[in-house]
Amino acid sequence: MNEFNNLIHGEWVAGTGYSPNVNPSDLSDVIGRYTQGDAAQVDAAVAAATAAFPAWSTGGVQARSEALEKIGNEILARKEELGTLLAREEGKTKAEGIGEAARAGQIFKFFAGECLRLAGEAIPSVRPGIGIEITREPVGVVGLITPWNFPIAIPAWKIAPALAFGNCVVLKPADLVPGSAWALAEIIHRSGIPAGVFNLVMGRGSVIGDALVNHAGIHAISFTGSVGVGGRIAVACAETHKKVQLEMGGKNPQVVLDDADLAQAVELCVQSAFYSTGQRCTASSRLIVTEGIYPKFIEAMKARMAKLKVGDALAQGTDIGPVSSQSQIEQDLSYVEIGRSEGATLAVGGERLKRDTEGYYMAPALFSESAPGMRINREEIFGPVASVIRVKDYDEALAVANDTPFGLSAGIATTSLKYATHFKRHAQAGMVMVNLPTAGVDYHVPFGGRKGSSYGPREQGRYAQEFFTTVKTAYTNA
User: Fold this and answer.
1) Catalytic-residue membership of 281
2) What three-state secondary structure class fits 192?
3) Confidence band, pLDDT 50/70/90 cuts, at residue 311
4) In terms of C-beta density within 10 A (0-12 exposed, 13-18 middle, 19 or more buried), how is residue 195 classed?
5) Is position 269 annotated as part of the catalytic site?
6) What is the pLDDT of residues 178-196, one digit of tens each?
7) Which domains does the chain have, with CATH numbers?
8) Residue 172 above 80 pLDDT?
């Protein structure tokens, strides 16, 4: 069986042991054994990045741009291979995996251009004869901690801007799905960037993540993951004066008004709630439906969900793959029982499924007659579980949509320009979708939310410079 090591200062280095990477569609299929690093390897990676930083941060932007372009081109050329690996280790369908791999390639190519577009200002001083330049410089050595649900796209949208703006990187990918991140690291390694500019240290979050967050040589931490871990990282970074960027949970609302196109509303709700097995921070698990369309909506959702095929992520025709892990499916099933105990009606699904291979298969669950205060409508489940909340009108729908500690994405299905316009302005979310699924953001625009969903500058697009650069003001007396 193949074994995969960490990348430190341009060398592949074994850690303290190896952990199997298991296919959630077929638990007998072990993709490979991936090494487990330790705090000493984090020290070595940070030292390598620190040594590489002076030359990389002040070198020509053309070399950076060419390296990122090369990385992006190879990812796109290998998107089917990489997407298949992603589907095999994470459980989203092969089509979704290929789409995610393509997005990773597009992200690198976008930031290949951003290398050349980083601008500043030249303004006069209030004092005669003095000029002022306002420029952006790289932050330094950044630690990137990424989750298991998008194992190539999220590393890409952190790594690419970090490198584009002259930073050096230590990446700690999710321990559950290291394969896609390792494949990406191998491509980056062959791109021509100097040794130490990019480093990969795989292993447990409690070991590698903590070591990165608390390391004196790390200047910034970008983290995507749970609210609890993100909060602890924020405190630790404040104590050590690190710049911090957090993308955390979501309990995203999808409003459906009486005037909505029913077929369109059902399709976008199914996609938002259940595609990628509902394992997206932008998934809409709260479907807020006005009373006029409510009965028809429930019946249409049940009919559409009956056509969904749950199966092996690599099998042709699969709509929804397995849940990612044993602990995740246990959590999902526990919330189904919580919803029942709270008095919601389980309209369809919610049971574990058997397939030809042993895996973490679950029928998507839809609750009707749920109330806003129920745990299933307050807490992030992160699985194929959605609940429908009946409301009187648009005003109540908006109030319920905003009644959450989260604020990542929000959607509305309506044919009314009036309500669509009002919702875009008054939905308390970082991203708003009108007649579109709540999940799905282009690679060149800012990604992030409000309230408990995000902290710090936005990710992606040109807004990424806010986190990965620092501003300098320089005066010259001619």
Assistant:
1) yes
2) coil
3) very high
4) middle
5) no
6) 999 999 999 999 999 999 9
7) 3-248+453-477 (3.40.605.10), 252-434 (3.40.309.10)
8) yes
